[in-house]
Amino acid sequence: MPTPVKFYYDLLSQHSRALYMFFEATKIPYEPIPVSTQQKEYEGKQVKSEYKEYVNRFQQVPMINDAGFKLSEGVTILKYLAREKLVPEHWYPRDSKLRARIDEFLEWQNNNSHTLFNKFVQEKFENSTKIHQNAENDLKLKEYKKLVENTLDVLENEWMQLSKDEEKAHKFMIGDKITIADILTACEVEQPKLVGVDPLDGRPKLTHWLEQVKSTMRPYYDEAHHDFYKITEQASAKN
C-alpha cells in the first residue's frame, strides 16, 4: 500500500477545495489534516510557530507532504499529483497542446482572478470590521468590485468560448472531459460569494459550465463547499 499523502487544508481556501475534490475523485490515498487559517491554529497549536517550523515555511494552505516531499501552492500541487499518481489522464493530459491550453489558462487565472478575488474578499472583510467607515474605503471597495465584475466578464466572454477555435461545443473549458483547470476555476468563481457578490448574475455561459462541473464532481463538490456555503448565505443576507 502506498503511503498516504498528507494534505493540509482549509476549505475556505479555493485551492484547498479544488484539491479536496481531486483527492476524492481520483482516490489517491491521503491523510486529511485541516488547518484553521482564520484562527491561526494547526492541531491546536499556533500556526506561526509549529506549522511554519514543521510543515510550511510560508504558513499557508494548501500544502502536501508526499513521503517526505513537501510542496505548497495549489496549482503546483495539482500538476504534481496528476503527473506522479495513477489518475485518469484527462485531468492533466500528456498531449502537449491540451496541456498548453490548461497551462495558458492557469497562468492567466493566477495573474488575474486568483489574486484579485482574494484581495477583494480580504478588503471587504477588513472594511466590515472597522468602526468608522469613510468615503476613501468605500471608493476603494467599489473599484475592487468593478475589477472583479470585469474579470468575471472576461471568463464569460473569452475563456468560456475556447470551443470556437475548435469549431465544436465543449462541455468543459478545454474539451469534453473535466481537467484541473475546471475544478480550480469553479472554486475561484465561487469565492466572491463570501462577500455577497453573485458571480453568475447575467453570465449564462459561466452558469451552464459551473453546473456541468458541479454535476460531474458530486458529491465531492458539495462536501468541499458545505461550510463555505453557510458563510456565503450569511453574506448574501447582509447585502
Automatic annotation (TrEMBL):
<comment type="similarity">
    <text>Belongs to the GST superfamily.</text>
</comment>
<keyword id="KW-0808">Transferase</keyword>
<feature type="domain" description="GST N-terminal">
    <location>
        <begin position="3"/>
        <end position="89"/>
    </location>
</feature>
<dbReference type="InterPro" id="IPR004045">
    <property type="entry name" value="Glutathione_S-Trfase_N"/>
</dbReference>
<keyword id="KW-0963">Cytoplasm</keyword>
<feature type="domain" description="GST C-terminal">
    <location>
        <begin position="95"/>
        <end position="238"/>
    </location>
</feature>
<dbReference type="GO" id="GO:0016740">
    <property type="term" value="F:transferase activity"/>
</dbReference>
<protein>
    <submittedName>
        <fullName>Putative glutathione s-transferase</fullName>
    </submittedName>
</protein>
<dbReference type="InterPro" id="IPR004046">
    <property type="entry name" value="GST_C"/>
</dbReference>
<dbReference type="Pfam" id="PF02798">
    <property type="entry name" value="GST_N"/>
</dbReference>
<dbReference type="Pfam" id="PF00043">
    <property type="entry name" value="GST_C"/>
</dbReference>
<dbReference type="InterPro" id="IPR040079">
    <property type="entry name" value="Glutathione_S-Trfase"/>
</dbReference>
<dbReference type="InterPro" id="IPR036282">
    <property type="entry name" value="Glutathione-S-Trfase_C_sf"/>
</dbReference>
<dbReference type="InterPro" id="IPR010987">
    <property type="entry name" value="Glutathione-S-Trfase_C-like"/>
</dbReference>
<dbReference type="GO" id="GO:0005737">
    <property type="term" value="C:cytoplasm"/>
</dbReference>
<dbReference type="InterPro" id="IPR036249">
    <property type="entry name" value="Thioredoxin-like_sf"/>
</dbReference>
<dbReference type="InterPro" id="IPR051369">
    <property type="entry name" value="GST_Theta"/>
</dbReference>
